[in-house]
Specification:
This is Glycosyltransferase family 9 protein. By secondary structure, this protein is α/β, with parallel strands linked by helices. The protein is built from 14 helices and 12 strands. Strands 3-2-1-4-5-6 form a 6-stranded parallel sheet, sandwiched between helices. A 6-stranded parallel sheet has the order 9-8-7-10-11-12, with helices on both faces. The protein is globular and about 60 Å long.
Length: 336
């Protein structure tokens, strides 16, 4: 059976779909993952994916493209050429799968399933309704199981990526802690000053610190690293970043893609978690986590991109010393 899995949003969202993708792969001869541009790099890291199709949906992302009939027609042609027998549409709790399901139906895919609050009419063959409080990774697995895609008995349901390369040439050898100061939205980010404070205090406590960031975050990582940390800003691809995170003792990150990548390589996370989305659904999954940040702050559940509360207190009241204590606790509790 040729199967299609759809997850159209960000890097971290696609990683959280990984256990469901593996469940689909266990029952399929070929798995295609349809994703958006922000999730494509993560899609190429997932076990069980044979082919990645990239398409920017007009209903996803911070700045979605206009609706262009030519784009829709091109996508339908690619989907028809894939001759998929079934499609699993994965969305977050606040998103509707129905625009995607309509396109899949037009593409002639015979069996379509998704988690849908809205009445789907004839757009879905399997309509799942998520259980309250389920983590996004668990909710995706539940939806796959409703389609008949149960995970194989030896699959623990955790996040996973393909084996990363050796990154010792980037980090140097010996134990280290990673701090990732960037975030996909300002409301989720710890301030640069707090990040720099944590780097200095970790170095004073005897830790080697590696600071990571994307190509557009070089100024940020340089500022945060100071003269005490290894600055890898703009120097890692998604695969090499996975390698850097895999060998870290602990990763310190906001609620953003690298936090989920750390979980996918089995590394404990100090999660600086702004409550604009619920931690029960979005915290790093399947690894030891210490959650820092006021989860009852006024911004809770707003999905705000920019903090609506002056001073960003939910995160910036967290100190560098709080992070050092959390790092030490995770290291002490980590199995030897």
């Amino acid at each position: 059976m040729r199967s299609l899995v759809v997850r159209l949003d960000s890097f971290g969202d696609v990683l959280l779909a990984g256990p469901a993708v593996r469940a689909v792969a266990a029952h399929s001869t070929h798995v295609t993952l349809l994703c958006g541009p922000r999730g494509a790099d993560a899609a190429r890291l997932l076990p069980g994916v044979d082919e990645v199709l990239v398409w920017e949906a007009p209903w996803e992302g911070f700045d979605p493209p206009p609706v262009r009939p030519a784009d829709i027609d091109a996508l339908l042609g690619r989907l028809r050429a894939g001759a998929h027998d079934s499609a699993l549409v994965l969305t977050s709790f606040h998103q509707s799968p129905l625009p995607t399901a309509l396109l899949l139906r037009l593409a002639g895919i015979g069996r379509i399933g998704a988690d849908s609050t809205d009445h789907p009419g004839r757009l879905l063959d399997v309509r799942h309704r998520r259980l309250p409080g389920r983590h996004e990774a668990e909710a995706a697995l539940d939806t796959a199981a409703a389609m008949g895609f149960t995970p194989p008995p030896n699959d623990d349901g955790r996040l996973r990526v393909l084996p990363p390369p050796d990154t010792g040439g980037l980090t140097g050898y010996g134990p280290y802690v990673v701090l990732h100061p960037g975030a996909s939205a300002p409301a989720r980010a710890w301030s640069p000053d707090r990040c720099a404070e944590a780097v200095a205090l970790l170095a004073d406590a005897g830790h080697r610190v590696v600071v990571t960031g994307g190509p557009g975050e070089r100024d940020l990582t340089r500022r945060v690293s100071g003269d005490v940390a290894v600055d890898l800003g703009g120097r890692t691809s998604p695969r090499t970043l996975a390698g850097v995170l895999r060998l870290a003792d602990v990763v310190i990150s906001a609620n953003t893609g690298p936090a989920h990548l750390a979980a996918a390589v089995g590394t404990p996370v100090v999660s600086l978690f702004a409550p604009v989305v619920p931690a029960e659904r979005w915290a790093p999954y399947g690894v030891p986590v210490i959650l820092l940040g006021d989860q009852s702050a006024p911004c809770a559940d707003t999905r705000a991109l920019t903090c609506p509360v002056p001073g960003h207190p939910c995160l910036d009241e967290v100190t560098g010393q709080d992070v050092v204590r959390a790092v030490h606790k995770l290291i002490q509790e980590r199995p030897s």
